[in-house]
């Protein structure tokens, strides 16, 4: 190792030289011997900063005056044996080594400060009481990455982790954090840490096929290289690689063909510190002046030897401001120095140990220094506060790094934001959107979602066996809406509203009734009025020819009354048109019932008249006294009054009323008359039917009576038409809804009235108008 003696020695363990990773072990032939030949630049920098910091402290008259710090720095892959007493140890970088060392050191309570190990379980105070670190523990990384994903709206992400316990633990921690959010994991793969082309190709195949665009890689830089090489070979672009602090600033990918693949990589990096004076210190390095540094030869070879050319010098090496992990080492050394300083400055009697005693700087026990390390709290040269929490963790700070493509085709990493978990809410996460660059040089944030969000009008429907982020959008059913994106449920519209076609808002239902304005209503109304003129015209004709035999036959007044009633029949259909109100609802069925009862009773009276008139001509007939207007008048009166009584009973018990019917047709509010009592309605109709049937029977029996103008035939016929119309009305009425129900009734009224009118009056009119020569008593009685 690199050893420099002093009053007190600080140990350092760094992996400057490691095993070569590049040869694949195929297990089919004897593997090549592995050598510790690979020199790593970054750990070398950590060694340098340790030396730099200790020298700086030794020159500082305020920190540890009269005490010279020495160091013993060892490579992780070399056995070390040293008789120098140790105060504390800085290291290691690899998790495995750190854990091994921590396990060893806790026996003696040696403080250990790691600058690069993030595994969470090292925060377990029971197991590792003397472990500290100057890098945030892994859980903060997970929380930061999740926050980034949420910020960019990626809810469908993949993870690729190195295939060992460390990768597994970090992935588990990330998944636990993701479980607290609505982000889903599309795939979770591992990359081998023993090179295997087959496994790498498998992972790349998964990445290529998946719709996931945001892929978190949790791995040591070295294992990622073959993965990115294969991704580049297969021309996979458009992915966002989310990096962890382990490779956020790795220059391995910045040049050549891989640069295109990883442009736009974003992730967290260890907080950067610009250590004043360190750059100059590095520039003074020289194999001739730094002979006690065992690594200097390797370093010199690395920088200038082999194919390396001076103009390709790793710029970031000399750009000391790029120091991140290096800065952690620096802070670690200072933490130990400050702890030692506090121990040194202890005033006897006021010390922290038994009876107020202090520790002796020259002969202190490790647990005594441990006490001071736990409580160390100082501001470093950069003005940043350094301390450890109860679990040995530093204030959690991350820089957000984005890989930008520069005009020469290479990449550079750019700091675009920061996580500071100890800052107040709102300042803990800062990101500069306008500084972001994505794969392909785009400035638009890439999507990484399994399903596009559902627009208003649609609801999410989970896909069986798939994560919740993958769903189908299903249009809300009729009468239901959603007015927000990504709704889980559709909301029912209020009962007087209906869903719009897009199902994104409730619209008032259309109101429906048979109105005068619409074609159907207008037609029916004009037909009624037109047809009501016909009985009026017939009436005029009858009055004009009132003294002719054909008019006088079978009770002239009854004919007048029937014609009047028929006129009213046609007109009463007008009450059925227009918006139902209390008055029209009450009037409708009642007027219809009474007028029709009047009509049919007139016809019945006429039929009875025919029968009586015929029989009365026989000698000694008892019916003679019935000839005259009394009987028909009585029949008309009684039959009509019965209907009037039924109607009065109906109106007084449960009168019809207007009603908004929202049930029968979902998209409409039908304004209709509720009959109040359906029984009463059918009673009115039934009574009319009975009258008609009685009339029909009587007329049928009288149809062959020998009278040259026997009305009975026509009445039979008219009643047949009447009954047929109203019998066919029943099923038609019951099977229609809304305004058509009303139209059916109007149609039945018009049809039956027309039938009645045509059958009874057309033969008479024919004779009166076209065959006036037949309109004589002789002709009528003649044959
Ligand atoms: C350091 O040494 C100087 C001279 O030997 C002495 O005057 C001074 O008191 C010492 N400081 C401490 C803190 O022991
Ligand atoms: C990748 O693209 C290059 C040129 O754009 C092409 O030559 C090469 O065949 C492509 N490789 C694959 C695997 O598609
Ligand atoms: C954000 O980034 C843009 C582009 O790099 C830069 O011009 C601007 O100053 C940055 N804003 C802040 C607040 O850092
Ligand atoms: C969505 O509909 C609900 C209930 O109808 C209403 O309270 C809310 O304001 C609507 N939201 C939007 C964004 O229109």
Main sheet properties = 8 strands, mixed
The termini sit apart by 151 Å
Helix content: 40-55%
Q: CATH fold name of the largest domain, please?
A: Rhopdopsin 7-helix transmembrane proteins
Strand element count: 27
What structural class do the secondary elements suggest? alpha/beta
CATH superfamily of the largest domain: Rhodopsin 7-helix transmembrane proteins
CATH class categorisation of the largest domain = Mainly Alpha
User: Architecture of the largest domain in CATH?
Assistant: Up-down Bundle
- What would the principal axes of the Cα set say about the shape? rod-shaped
Q: How many domain regions?
A: 4
Distinct compounds present: 2-acetamido-2-deoxy-beta-D-glucopyranose
Radius of gyration: 53 Å
| Average pLDDT metric | 86
Strand order of the largest sheet: 10-9-11-12-13-16-17-18
Number of helices: 21
Per DSSP, what share of the residues sits in E-state strands of 2 or more residues?
15-25%
Low-confidence stretches: 79-84, 307-311
Characterization of the model:
The protein is an alpha/beta fold. The protein folds into 4 domains: 2-134 and 275-381, 3-Layer(aba) Sandwich (Rossmann fold), CATH 3.40.50; 138-270 and 397-441, Response regulator (Rossmann fold), CATH 3.40.50.2300; 458-508, no CATH class; 519-782, Rhodopsin 7-helix transmembrane proteins (Rhopdopsin 7-helix transmembrane proteins, Up-down Bundle), CATH 1.20.1070. 43% of the residues lie in helices and 16% in strands. The protein is built from 21 helices and 27 strands. The longest helix has 35 residues, at 582-616. Mean pLDDT is 86; it is low at 79-84 and 307-311. Bound molecules: 2-acetamido-2-deoxy-beta-D-glucopyranose (4 copies). One 2-acetamido-2-deoxy-beta-D-glucopyranose binds at residues 65-66.
């Amino acid at each position: 190792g690199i050893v420099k003696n002093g009053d007190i020695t600080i140990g350092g363990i760094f992996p400057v030289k490691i095993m070569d990773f590049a040869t694949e072990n195929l297990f089919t032939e004897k593997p090549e011997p592995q050598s510790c030949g690979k020199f790593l630049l970054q750990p070398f920098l950590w060694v340098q900063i340790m030396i730099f910091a200790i020298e700086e402290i030794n020159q500082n008259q305020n920190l540890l005056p009269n005490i010279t710090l020495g160091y013993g720095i060892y490579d992780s892959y070399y056995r070390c044996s040293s008789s120098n007493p140790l105060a504390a140890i800085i290291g290691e970088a690899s998790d495995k080594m750190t854990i091994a060392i921590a396990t060893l050191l806790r026996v003696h309570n040696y403080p250990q400060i790691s600058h690069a190990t993030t595994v969470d379980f090292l925060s377990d105070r029971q197991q590792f009481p003397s472990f500290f670190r100057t890098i945030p523990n892994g859980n903060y990384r997970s929380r930061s990455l999740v926050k980034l994903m949420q910020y960019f709206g990626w809810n469908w992400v993949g993870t690729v982790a190195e295939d060992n316990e460390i990768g597994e633990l970090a992935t588990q921690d990330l998944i636990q954090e993701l479980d607290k959010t609505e982000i889903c994991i599309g795939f979770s793969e591992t990359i081998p840490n023993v090179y295997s082309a087959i496994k790498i190709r498998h992972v790349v195949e998964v990445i290529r096929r998946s719709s996931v665009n945001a892929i978190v890689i949790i791995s040591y830089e070295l294992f990622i290289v073959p993965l990115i090489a294969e991704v580049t070979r297969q021309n996979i672009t458009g992915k966002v690689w989310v990096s962890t602090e382990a490779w956020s600033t790795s220059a391995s990918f910045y040049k050549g063909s891989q640069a295109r693949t990883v442009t736009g990589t974003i992730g967290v990096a260890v907080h950067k510190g610009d250590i004043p004076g360190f750059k100059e210190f590095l520039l003074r390095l020289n194999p001739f002046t730094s002979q006690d540094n065992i690594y200097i030869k390797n370093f010199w070879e690395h920088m200038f030897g082999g194919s390396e050319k001076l103009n390709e010098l790793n710029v970031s090496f000399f750009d000391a401001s790029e120091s991140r992990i290096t800065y952690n080492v620096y802070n670690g050394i200072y933490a130990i120095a400050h702890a030692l300083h506090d121990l040194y400055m202890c005033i006897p009697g006021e010390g922290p140990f038994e009876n107020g005693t202090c520790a002796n700087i020259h002969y202190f026990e490790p647990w005594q220094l441990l006490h001071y390390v736990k409580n160390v709290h100082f501001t470093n040269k950069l003005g940043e506060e350094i301390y450890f929490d109860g679990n040995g963790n530093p204030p959690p700070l991350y820089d957000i790094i984005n890989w930008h493509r520069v005009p020469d085709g290479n990449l550079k990493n750019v700091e675009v934001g920061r996580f500071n978990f100890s800052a107040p809410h709102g300042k803990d996460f800062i990101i500069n959107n306008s500084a972001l660059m994505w794969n392909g040089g785009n400035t638009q944030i890439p999507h990484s979602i399994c399903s596009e969000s559902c627009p208003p009008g649609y609801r999410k429907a989970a896909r069986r066996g798939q994560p919740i982020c993958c769903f189908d959008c299903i249009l809300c059913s009729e009468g239901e809406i959603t007015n927000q994106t990504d709704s889980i449920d559709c909301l029912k519209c209020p009962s007087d509203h209906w869903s719009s076609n897009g199902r994104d808002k409730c619209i008032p239902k259309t109101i429906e009734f048979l109105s005068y304005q619409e074609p159907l209503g207008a037609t029916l109304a004009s037909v009624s009025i037109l047809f009501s003129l016909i009985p009026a015209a017939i009436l005029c004709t009858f009055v004009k020819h009132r003294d002719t035999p054909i008019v006088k036959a079978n009770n002239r007044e009854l004919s007048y009354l029937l014609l009047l009633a028929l006129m009213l029949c046609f007109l009463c259909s007008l009450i059925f048109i227009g918006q139902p109100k209390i008055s029209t609802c009450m009037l409708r069925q009642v007027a219809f019932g009474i007028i029709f009862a009047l009509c049919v009773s007139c016809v019945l009276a006429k039929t009875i008249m025919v029968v009586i008139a015929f029989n009365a001509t026989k000698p000694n007939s008892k019916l003679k006294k019935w000839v005259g207007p009394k009987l028909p008048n009585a029949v008309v009166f009684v039959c009509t009054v019965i209907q009037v009584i039924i109607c009065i009973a109906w109106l007084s018990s449960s009168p019809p009323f207007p009603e908004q019917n929202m049930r029968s047709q979902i998209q409409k509010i039908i304004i209709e008359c509720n009959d109040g009592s359906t029984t009463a309605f059918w009673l009115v109709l039934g009574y009319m039917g009975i009258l008609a049937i009685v009339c029909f029977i009587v007329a049928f029996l009288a149809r062959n009576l020998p009278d040259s103008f026997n009305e009975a035939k026509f009445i039979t016929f008219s009643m047949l038409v009447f009954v047929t119309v109203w019998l066919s009305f029943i099923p038609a009425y019951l099977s229609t809804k809304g305004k058509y129900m009303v139209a059916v009734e109007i149609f039945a009224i018009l049809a039956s009235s027309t039938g009645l009118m045509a059958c009874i009056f057309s033969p008479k009119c024919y004779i009166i108008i076209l065959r006036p020569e037949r309109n004589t008593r002789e002709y009528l009685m003649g044959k």
